[in-house]
Structure formats: structure tokens, C-alpha cells
Design goal:
The protein is mostly helical. Helix content is 72%, strand content 0%. It contains 7 helices and no strands. α2 runs antiparallel to α3 and α6 packs antiparallel against α7. It is globular, with a radius of gyration of 15 Å.
């Protein structure tokens, strides 16, 4: 998982894969519930960071920007070095921008560029930052 060998229960893996399948099928509300159930049932799961990321992505797809920001910030605070952290921070910035918080988005994009300089997310943040009105 994310380049690491981890041990997970078969039910835990099935629950994660089912939730991810819901997300990929565009069943965002169902995916949110499924990922939240996984996080509750297996609080120490190796899937926790990904479950947070995909929950936030599903919330974004539903245009629930406040929830998106809260969920992705939870991932960033708990797992700042996770491979999905740059993408989570990008999602926060985009959600801020799309909800009208241009100042917050600018700060988030600047932090992302500084902290995760050589990532694809940082490149997108540079483009988004350049397009933000001053």
C-alpha cells in the first residue's frame, strides 16, 4: 500500500476496495459512508490516510467544500508525510478557491509549493496561484 508492505485483515481490504469502487462509480455519498465506516471499524488501519483522502475527494465531488477542507486537513495533520499529502493540500486550496475564499486558497497554494516543491500537486498549485485574482 503506497509503496509499503502492510498487514491488513481480509474484511478490511474488502471494505476499502468496495468503498473505492463506489467512489470510482460516481456513488460519492455511498463512498463517504463506506470510508467512514472503514475508518471507524479499523481506526489504526493502514488504509486510514487513503480513506481520508478519498472521503475528501468524494465530498469535493458533491461540492461540500467545508467538509472537503476539514477532511483533507485531517489527513494533513495526522499524516503530513503520506504520499497523498500534496494532493490533499491541493484539494484544500481548490475547495477554498471554489467556495470564494481566495485569500485562504492563495495561502494554501503558497504553502503547498513551499512544502512539496517538486510534486505534480505543486505544479498545479503554481498554475492555480497565477490564475487567482489579486
Amino acid at each position: 500500500l503506497d509503496g509499503k508492505s502492510v498487514a491488513v485483515e481480509p474484511d478490511e481490504q474488502r471494505a476499502y476496495e468496495a468503498a473505492l469502487a463506489q467512489f470510482r462509480a460516481g456513488e460519492f455519498a455511498a463512498a463517504i459512508v463506506s470510508f467512514q465506516q472503514l475508518r471507524t471499524r479499523w481506526p489504526n488501519s493502514a488504509y486510514q490516510p487513503n480513506a481520508l483522502y478519498w472521503t475528501g475527494s468524494a465530498q469535493f465531488a458533491l461540492k461540500d467544500y467545508k467538509a472537503t477542507i476539514a477532511t483533507q486537513q485531517a489527513l494533513l495533520s495526522r499524516f503530513p508525510d503520506h504520499p497523498r499529502a500534496p494532493d490533499a493540500m491541493l484539494a484544500v486550496g481548490v475547495a477554498q478557491s471554489d467556495s470564494g475564499d481566495k485569500r485562504g486558497a492563495r495561502k494554501t497554494f503558497e504553502t503547498l509549493i513551499e512544502k512539496y516543491r517538486d510534486t505534480q500537486a505543486a505544479q498545479i498549485a503554481r498554475e492555480r496561484l497565477a490564475a487567482l485574482p489579486r
